[in-house]
Structure formats: structure tokens, C-alpha cells
Amino acid sequence: MTTMSALFDLSGKVAIVTGSRTGLGQGMALALAQAGARIVGVDRGAASETAELIGAAGGQFHPIVADLSATAALGDIVEQTVKTCGAVDILVNNAGIIRRADALEFTEADWDEVLNVNLKSAFFLAQACARSMIETGRGGKIVNIASMLSYQGGVRVASYTSAKSGVMGLTRLLCCEWAARGINVNAIAPGYMATNNTQALREDADRNAQILGRIPAGRWGRPSDLAGAVVFLASAAADYIHGVTLPVDGGWLAR
Ligand code: NAD
């Protein structure tokens, strides 16, 4: 009989986590390592703090420095992962950026930069991982990071809302194409979380009060709040869950 803890056990699994140097990616990389996975952390900067945290928890962390604003490195990331760790079982497409400006003033550069990292690279890295997962016959789990702006419009974030709405649609499309190939594609939609991504909002006293006042849980989320959701969606416990975007938002969407 499978024990409940075995359902969530990621021992022997290899997880690529993008954007794992800080914030939510760091929190999810640590959680997956605590569940037993070896972590390949992809970031444009050195992820020394994440390496230390995972090392201290008794896990294994293999850093890859790569810029996800272009697709050139994506094939290499999967190749290096397979070479170093033997396979890729889990992909967490987390790296993301945001640019803020009124839609009337929004520049093409702010559009392209965000779409390239948040949507284009996420798709082509998923494609490269899925090819490997299918080739080895091991299947796998892909977890994309969506947003409240996959559901809502927001203001002053035209490229971010477009990319994150795209991430939710892409999650459904990939589910339809890959579920029968043994790959679960799902997403997590974090609510308002205290990271670099939201620093400007938290420093604006009015916006901070508006946002906090609408979160039923009454506080900003923390990277550790995503631990359970990411381990669940990356584990055998989620084997029949496909195409879902799971909000982890302190109740924001229910309001
Ligand atoms: P963050 O800025 O702390 O982390 C982003 C990470 O992505 C960093 O480690 C950064 O170095 C990496 N990164 C950015 N551009 C990259 C590139 N071109 N190549 C490689 N790595 C790159 O922000 P965060 O809040 O932890 O964001 C993580 C994800 O969660 C993003 O996709 C973000 O849109 C999403 N998200 C955040 C919130 C929130 O409230 N913080 C809410 C919903 C969704």
C-alpha cells in the first residue's frame, strides 16, 4: 500500500526551477529539495543564497547561469541537467519580470522584455523538457507560475497581464497535448507576495493599504506559502490533475 508520505515524496527526482536566486523561486526550490528532489536552479545571477539554504537542509543544488530573455540557452539547460543529474522530471517555470507604465505610454521594449521571459522562454523550456521526458519514457510534471493577473486586468502592467494570462492559457493547451504522454502541466497563481517583484507596491502606502485591505488572510504572502502547492503538483499525489491553475492567494480571488 502506498503511504500518504510516499505520495508526496520526490526522492530520486530532478527538478529544474527557473528564477531560483530569490523570492518565490528560491522558496519553491527549497520546498522541492526538502521533499527529496535534486534541484537544478536556473537564473541570470549566481544563486548562492539558495545553494546555502538547500545545502543546510541536506539537499542538492546545481546552479546554471542563463539569461531567459532569449531562447538560445534553453536546449543547453536541459542537456546540462540530463548530463549532471541523469534526467529531468520536474520543471517549475518561475522566472519572471514586471514593467509598470500607463498603457498609453507603454514601450515596445517593456512589452518584449516581459513577454520574452514570462511567456516565450517558459514555453520553449517546457517544450525542451517535455521532449526529454517523452524520450526517456519517465513522463514528468510541469508547474508554470501564473498570477492574479491571469484572471484580472490590473493597471499599468500591460505586458505582464498579457504574459500571465497567456501562461494560464498555455497551461491548458499543454495539458491537452501532453497529458496522454505522461506529463502533467499545471500552474500556481500566487496572490500578492512579499518579494522584489512587489517591492514598489509595498513601498507605496496607499497601494499597500488597498491591497492588504482586500486580502482575506490579512497579510502579504511569503515564498514559503507556495511550498505545499508546488510539492503537491510536482508529486504523484497530482498524477490525475491536469491543466489546473491553483490560486495560492490568501483568498484574494474569493473577495
Ligand atoms: P523576484 O524578482 O524576487 O524573482 C524573480 C527571479 O527570476 C529572480 O531570481 C531573477 O533573477 C530571475 N530572473 C528574472 N529575469 C530573468 C532572466 N532573464 N533570466 C533568468 N532569470 C531571470 O520575483 P518573484 O516575486 O519571486 O517572482 C517569481 C515569479 O512569480 C514571477 O514569474 C512572478 O511574475 C510571479 N509572481 C509573483 C507574485 C508576487 O506577488 N511576488 C505574484 C504572482 C506571480
CATH superfamily: NAD(P)-binding Rossmann-like Domain
Most strands sheet: 7 strands, parallel
Strand order of the largest sheet: 3-2-1-4-5-6-7
Q: What form results from the Cα inertia axes?
A: globular
Examine the secondary-structure arrangement and name the CATH architecture: 3-Layer(aba) Sandwich
The small-molecule ligands in this entry are: nicotinamide-adenine-dinucleotide
Radius of gyration: 17 Å
**Given the helix and strand composition, which structural class is it?**
alpha/beta
For the record, give the distance between the C-alpha atoms at the N and C termini, rounded to a whole number.
Answer: 41 Å
Low-confidence stretches: none
Looking at the structure, the CATH topology is Rossmann fold
* Strand and helix order: HEHEHEHEHEHEHHHE
Proportion in helices: 40-55%
Describe it:
The chain has a single domain (4-247), classed as Rossmann fold. It is 43% helix and 15% strand. It is globular and about 50 Å long. The chain has 255 residues and is α/β, with parallel strands linked by helices. Strands 3-2-1-4-5-6-7 form a seven-stranded parallel β-sheet, with helices on both faces. The longest helix is centred in the middle third of the chain and has 29 residues, at 108-136. Helix 2 packs across helix 9 (227-234), helix 4 (74-85) runs parallel beside helix 5 (108-136) and helix 5 runs parallel beside helix 6 (158-178). Nicotinamide-adenine-dinucleotide is lined by residues 19, 21-25, 43-45, 67-69, 94-97, 117-118, 145, 147, 190, 192-193, 195-198.
